[in-house]
Amino acid sequence: MSLEGRNAVVTGGGSGIGRACATVLAERGAAVAVWDLDREGAEETVATIRDAGGKGLVVHADCAAAAAVAEAADRTRAELGPVTILVNNAGITKYKAFVDLTEEEWDETIRIDLKGPFLVTKALVAGMLDVGWGRIVNISSSSAQSGSPNMAHYVAAKGGVIGFTKALATEFAACGITVNNVPPGFVDTPLMRRNVPDPAATAARMPMQRAGRAEDVAYAVAYLTSEEAAYVTGHTLSVNGGRVFG
Ligand code: NAD
User: Fold this and answer.
1) What residue stretches are annotated with the Ketoreductase domain (predicted)?
2) Is residue 234 in some structural domain?
3) Which residues pair with 7 in a beta bridge?
4) What is the ipTM of this complex?
5) 213 C-alpha to center of ligand 1: Å?
6) What CATH number is associated with residue 91?
């Protein structure tokens, strides 16, 4: 599954799942632009990629702000060339009981987790249409498949990401561009450690009795970005250690 000669953008690539995706895509030969609000995190990811002999680019950007996204897209194209792989991974989560959830918290989660993928995809898909080849992978969440308490804002945003994926998959199916989504289950990342009071107990409740590793998600993403996945689009590839949803 070589990605030699391809240029990729991974949003939120400065930590957790995004970092693993950026690293695995680079290992397979892609040049990877790591877009993140956290400049230091993005620099660490790109340093790892370069140390392993790969090509990476740090792009400090708020992926949910239109002007910053346009600037990031211009810079990435200028430095790497046409971008044909996009992983919409940047996201936030904060547990909050619905009765306490404020309008501001709702809006902020929808802005980053749902509007962000819209803006970044808008900025990059025209280039994929020009080339006639593209791979878009949206990171959603198993909580949007099952529902989850204290996460109405997040589940609504990630449910939107799943719908957005299906809509674009049909719209671009005849254009050489696939659009899929990967809902992770419980994955050991800084985000999870910030949110979950007892990660070991939560991990033990998973069918595989362990938390996922960021790499578990990255390998699924790498498949969906490959040439071999050309006939797979609009698909939900769950990476959750065996949780099954009806
Ligand atoms: P993380 O907090 O470790 O990493 C997220 C990265 O996104 C950070 O580097 C952060 O700076 C960046 N980011 C956040 N908002 C941004 C913005 N507006 N612009 C640019 N960068 C921004 O989180 P993670 O656990 O690796 O999560 C990655 C994705 O996976 C998220 O979309 C999350 O919702 C999803 N997810 C994670 C889990 C899990 O168990 N960890 C489960 C389901 C879904």
Assistant:
1) 6-185
2) no
3) 31
4) 0.99
5) 14
6) 3.40.50.720
